[in-house]
Write a structure and sequence with these properties.
This protein is of the alpha+beta class. It contains eight helices and 15 strands. The protein starts with a helix and ends with a strand.
Amino acid sequence: MTELELINQIKRYFGEDRTEFKKAILGINFNGKEHKAWKKFFVQVTNEHPFDVSFRMMNEEVKKITAKKYDEIDWDFIGDISWEVKILLNEHIKQGYDWDKKLCANCGGTARILRILISDIIPAFTCDVYSMTYSKMEGYYEFNPIQLATTKEKEILKQVVNKLKQKQYYFVSKKLANQKFKDVYSDCHSEGNASVFDVLFSDVDGYQTERVRYNDKLLKDSTGKEIRWREFYDKDGGLIKRLEYQYFKSKNVLLIETNKNEEIQKVTVWKNTNKQIHQEFKLKLP
């Protein structure tokens, strides 16, 4: 497959006419055989490193399809029609545990992960590498884009790419994945201008391009208001900005964005009004 053929296939399945897309979805077999096949495939290429395989489509829609309740399918919120494979790169770790806190703990606090996304509509795949850190003491996660560090890590990636290409899967580079088309649509881009990555792999979880940290559990202040924060850092660990979401009992939501000097840059409020639910109001400060 060439890049042009891939793009033509994308427009065929993910264009305004959803006929071919619906046929492809209804043609998926949810009996577990494909999941077993991918597990068998990755056993051969991971050099005994732990890995995890999951299908990203919305569970609610899968249940409707398997129950043949086709009239109830929400075609505007079907989920990502792709497989996600995570391969642990850390040495001497024999299992993936929960692929979360327990994994980080058994990796000395930080897990190094090779992520492969494989489209289930068009034979294409892409790869990403990131680290996941969990601090139990301070109650936060941190995700960071990383480079392959050792010869063995590079060999695992090489094996994955070569084996998938042998299966006639097209490798999608990050440059191509980020390319957008006005006449291509996804769940989160219902008006078009979706990217190759959005439609083939995911329109909610992209490549890990930023060093980001966020709190593990929702915090609560004395009024019962819930708080969630997210912080972005540069490659040297310096704070770039912080986003703090405050969830009021009134259903109002307040977002405060501050810079590295803790100066407020933007304020956003979502509030139910007579005009609409969760109407957005923005204030940008100098």
